[in-house]
Amino acid sequence: MSREERKRQTKEAIVRHAVELFKQKGFDNVTVEEITKQCGIAKGTFFNYFAKKEHILLHLTDAYFARLDDIFGQFSDQEPKEGVLRIFSDLLSLYAKHYEILRFALLETVKAPGETNGAGGNIPLFRQKLADFFVEAEAAGRFCGKWEPELTASVLSDLFVQTLIGRSGTDAFDKAEAYEKLKRQIVAIWEGLAHEKG
Question: How confident is the model at residue 119 (pLDDT cuts 50, 70, 90)?
Fold first, then answer.
């Protein structure tokens, strides 16, 4: 086995054991010492991979957002409002599936936007993917935006992230409820917040 393969396996083992401990005891109740003991590694080895236990959560958030290309790719040729709703639905499903850990990871990402290791780049990356989605829709004639794609993407991505944050304090995540609320908000934004006076 190569040195790179051993490093990859060690990092995976740290993440796997840490996640199990986080699920059992709650993130705040787990120490780096417990993680290293569970992995059978020295504390110094842990710090070769993660500067602190919070970075494990940021690593998990990276893995969540790594799915963006696949999810956006599935809906890139759809009418934009329907495409956005389907993209958000898929992301909510993925979030719900791994909610026990991703809720902590999301909060850590929001708290540490300037961190390295890709940590702070996930939300801006999500926003950029949405902006690109609208640019492509405009170029294909499927969308005629009133505002620049970056602003549209910023509003929608902030709405999505806020929906997740707003439900992160609960023990369970109701994907259907979150989606319905998000859908109503997107429809309100899409149609405008007020009727024009006639």
Answer: very low
Q: Where in the chain is the domain with CATH 1.10.10.60?
A: 3-50
The tally of CA atoms less than 13 A away on the side-chain side of residue 110 is 13
The predicted-structure confidence for 127-167, as pLDDT tens digits, reads as follows 999 999 999 999 999 888 888 999 999 999 999 989 988 88
DSSP state of 171: S
- Distance CA(87)–CA(68), nearest Å, equals 9
- CATH code of 57-191, in short, is 1.10.357.10
3-50 adopts what CATH topology?
A: Arc Repressor Mutant, subunit A (1.10.10)
pTM for this structure? 0.76
User: Alpha-carbon distance 73 to 13, whole Å?
Assistant: 31
Structure confidence at residue 60 (pLDDT)? 79
- Measured between alpha carbons, how far is 157 from 87 in angstroms, rounded to an integer? 11
How many Cβ atoms sit within 10 Å of the Cβ of residue 83? 20
| 50 contacts 14 by C-beta, under 8 angstroms | yes
- In DSSP notation, 18-41 reads HHHHHHHH-GGG--HHHHHHHHT-
